[in-house]
């Protein structure tokens, strides 16, 4: 008779280290997008902009650019808009990361990189600005997922970095998140992005992608929450490695680990277990938890939790504040992860 072998680990006991070289080597699409292609992108026919974006990005990846259409009284089409970068503007869950990874895979180059905004800023922090420029200079493509617009210092560093890389011939593709159908907020994402990277705004062609969050299409919209007995059974039924941590303990531990190393916290783990989830009231704790959720979601790890539902982990005040977009994205990912 074969028994299920479950290894219990505690993330709070892990103190991972990550060198700059390891950071650079890790700049590839996350596991669920390692095989992403334009052909596998699921277009929602209710939103024509998705098909249009897919076609434009295929041209961008091939090195071509779509021509601007002429105006109403134009006698001939305008010349093609040749820009080194594209910015995918749209709500979370509409497939921007899939399309970004598709660009990465479609560009036939050896030196190309794919990472989140925080991974690039962490690279600068680990290696220094000058060394980072030298390592990335001359690369064919830089994909930046979830470009953050709320930290002026980091945004200025990234804008300067991208400017130097474009000058060396690097092409850029970036996304950022905005909540869909939220009082028109999504319509201003592109303007926010271009304003914040004003020195680089002329380098980007904006491509709008409308739609609803695909993670919510088949879910009831709420994170699954377990009783203590059900939680124990869920973890013990896993044939592999599961983490088991108190929510407060993990939140406190995240403050002692740089966000760039969160991926190492969950290395080798098959399921993440959290006991006693409560609503977060401290902004710094909440933002660190968002960064942790991003890494868990990228690794496609299921989450099992007790306490309050994880979609209630951010209070109303946080959801109406300046980091609203980050929290809504995290909620979307938490709901999906508790149902996987």
TrEMBL record:
GO CC entries: cytoplasm
UniProt record, GO biological process: cell division
Superkingdom, taxonomy of origin: Bacteria
Pfam family, one: AFG1_ATPase
Signal peptide (from-to): none
Cell membrane listed as a keyword: no
MF terms in GO: ATP binding; ATP hydrolysis activity
Alphabetized UniProt keyword annotations: ATP-binding, Cell cycle, Cell division, Nucleotide-binding
NCBIfam families on file: ZapE
Name of protein: Cell division protein ZapE
Organism of origin: Microbacterium betulae
Native organism taxonomy: Bacteria, Bacillati, Actinomycetota, Actinomycetes, Micrococcales
Name of encoding gene: zapE
